[in-house]
Amino acid sequence: MVRRASGGSAVRGARRPEVRLPRLEAYGGGGLAPDGDYDGLEFRQEDFAGQDGAGARFMDCALRDCALDDTSLRRARLLDSVLTGIRGVGTDLAEATLRDVEVADARLGGAQLHGAVLERVRIRGGKIDYLNLRRARLRDVVFEGCVLVEPDLGGARLERVEFVDCVVKGVDLSAATLTDVDLRGAVSLEIAGGADRLAGAVISTGQLLDLAPVLAAELGIRVEG
Asked: What Pfam families does its record include (predicted)?
C-alpha cells in the first residue's frame, strides 16, 4: 500500500498483520514459566500479575482479558497471536519480539518495551500510558483508534509506522529515526521532545500549524508581533 503526501512524494504504508489462528486449546493454568513454550493456546481471564514468563514463546495464541500487572515477559516472543482486553501496570516486555500480532483494547500503564522488536503489529483501541519504546525497532506497525499518553520513542527506529484516528499526547522522539512514518491520521498530536527528528515523517497542514511553536523553538526562531 502506497500513499501520497501532499508534495507528491510516496509514503510507503504499513503492512498489516494477517493472523489466522488455528483451533485453540484452553490454557490449563499453573502460571507462566521462564522460557516456557506456549503453542495454540487460549488464555482467558488469567491473572498473571507478578509472574515470570521471561524468554517465553507464544505461537498462535490468544490472550483475552488477562491481567499483566508487573508480569515479566522480558525477551519473550509473541508470534502470530492476538491480545484482546489485556490490562496491567508495569508489564515488562523489554527486548521482546512481537511479529504478526494484533492488540485490541489494551489498558496498560508504564509498559516496558525498550529494545523490543515490533514487526507487522496492529494496536487498535484502548489506552496506553507512559509506553517505553526507547531504542525499540518498529517496522510495519499501526496504532489505530487508541490513546497514547507520553510514549517514549527516544532512540527508536520507526519504519512504515502509521497513526490512524488516535490521540498522541507528549510523545518523545529524541534521537529517533523515522522512515515512512505517517502521522496525518492522528486526531491529536503533541510532541514533548525531538521535534527535530520528524524528517522521514509526513504530517498534515493542520498539524504543521499546531506544531509551529514547537518547531520554531527547536530551531531557535523567535516569533514576535
From this structure: Pentapeptide, Pentapeptide_4
DSSP lists the bridge partners of residue 82 as 62, 102
Q: What contacts 204, CB < 8 A, 6 or more positions away?
A: 6, 183, 184
pLDDT in tens, 190-209: 999 999 999 899 999 998 88
Here the cell at position 217 is 523553538
What does the pLDDT look like over 46-59, one tens digit per residue?
Answer: 999 999 999 999 99
State the alpha helices, DSSP H only, in the chain. Answer: 205-219
Grid cell digits, residue 183: 502521522
- Between the alpha carbon of residue 213 and those of residues 17, 44, 217, the distances in Å are 37, 47, 6
Contact (CB, 8 A) for 192 and 46: no
Alpha-carbon distance 143 to 18, whole Å? Answer: 16
> Angle at Cα 156 formed by Cα 188 and Cα 6, nearest 5°?
45
Considering only CA atoms, which of 99, 35, 103 is closest in space to residue 66?
Answer: 103
Q: Concatenated DSSP letters for 53-77?
A: -TT-EEES-EEES-B-TT-B-TT-E
Q: Max CA-CA distance within the chain? A: 68
Rounded (10°) CA dihedral 208, 209, 213, 218 = 20
Query: Around Cβ 122, how many Cβ atoms within 10 Å?
Result: 21
C-alpha cell at 123: 494496536
C-alpha–C-alpha distance, residues 218 and 116, integer Å: 28
